[in-house]
Design a protein that fits this description.
Layout: E1 4-7, E2 25-26, H1 35-49, E3 52-55, H2 62-75, E4 80-83, H3 89-102, H4 109-120, E5 124-129, H5 142-147, E6 155-160, E7 164-167, E8 182-187, H6 194-202, E9 207-212, H7 217-221, E10 226-232, H8 236-244, E11 248-250, E12 257-259, H9 287-296
Helix pairs in contact: 1-2, 3-4
Length: 297
């Protein structure tokens, strides 16, 4: 069985991108279940799949994050990777689906889990907001804060890869990807066609799909009056080529294959490089010195 890719809510388990996309494991309500049941559920996933990669948002309740770490500690397993990328909830859901696509390929668990950090760089995630008064994930100036109290104001915000915030106007645009992407739009309580009618064409998206914004989006963006969007690479062949083109190394601690400088399963980093020993000075009593003096005499 392929490595299990898990998310912390059913609305983060997006429909398959293609026929090879494996189902997501949903750890919904992990903090509300008895601890022994949560441990048993995760142990079952490990027994079935061998390794487990859990993606969760920075907007997830603290109790859920604590429960994830508690379960991992109780199982004393280095086959569970906990990954919390710098992505809004919809972007995280897209990344989880990309890993579900790659889980059907001949990638080792360590390389698959490490691929999450790599693929994050190719995701452009943001939102259209009715207010930025409570937005603390992206730098917001005093002027934008003041404008957010004006009726009818809307703000276009790019959270990743580079933060950007602009007030929506006739010529408003955000910096987009320089490669072909699809766009997923997650609708909240804001009514607007700016994302689909203006941003998507400006970014030259090759395809567009819509869904509901994840439940965690309101907490992440500071408002539920939003339309979240994410531009991403949809093709499995492109994702696979990106991952396999990166040099692989072996974790010096647990021995698993990884890409990058951090093992996502045991969290070990490469040992510091050993500095070359300085050349020792010749002394009068050393054999080399004796031979040199003999030849010179």
């Amino acid at each position: 069985m392929p490595t299990a890719i898990a998310v912390t809510g059913a609305d983060l388990a997006l429909p398959p991108q293609d026929e090879r996309t494996v189902p997501a494991a949903v750890l919904d309500g992990l903090d509300r279940r008895p601890l022994d049941q949560a441990v048993a559920d995760v142990q079952t996933l490990l027994d079935q799949h061998g390794h487990l990669v859990v993606l969760y948002s920075r907007a997830v309740p603290t109790a859920v994050e604590q429960r994830l770490h508690t379960v991992r500690s109780l199982l004393e397993s280095d086959r569970i990777a906990l990954f919390r990328p710098e992505l809004p909830p919809l972007g995280l859901a897209v990344l989880a689906r990309q890993l579900r696509q790659l889980a059907s390929c001949d990638l080792s668990p360590g390389v698959l889990a490490s691929a999450g950090r790599l693929l994050t760089h190719y995701i452009h995630a943001g939102a259209l907001l009715a207010s930025v008064a409570r937005l603390d994930r992206v730098p917001v100036g005093l002027t934008s804060h003041a404008r957010s109290w004006m009726p009818g104001s809307q703000f276009a915000v790019l959270a990743h890869p580079q933060p950007q915030l602009v007030k929506v106007g006739p010529d408003t645009l955000l910096d987009g990807p320089e490669f072909g992407t699809w766009m997923l739009v997650g609708r909240g309580r804001l009514q607007s066609d700016w994302v689909t009618g203006t941003l998507a064409p400006a970014w030259r998206t090759q395809g567009l799909r819509e869904t509901e914004a994840p439940a965690e989006s309101a907490a992440w963006w500071g408002t539920d009056k939003l339309i979240e969007f994410c531009a991403y690479l949809p093709d499995l062949s492109v994702l696979y080529q990106l991952v396999t083109s990166v040099r692989q190394t072996v974790c010096h601690w647990c021995g698993i294959d990884v890409i990058g400088d951090l093992c996502v399963f045991c969290s070990a980093t490469p040992p510091p490089a050993q500095e070359p020993r300085p050349a020792r000075a010749l002394t009068a009593g050393s054999p080399r010195t004796h031979r040199a003096l003999t030849k010179g005499g």
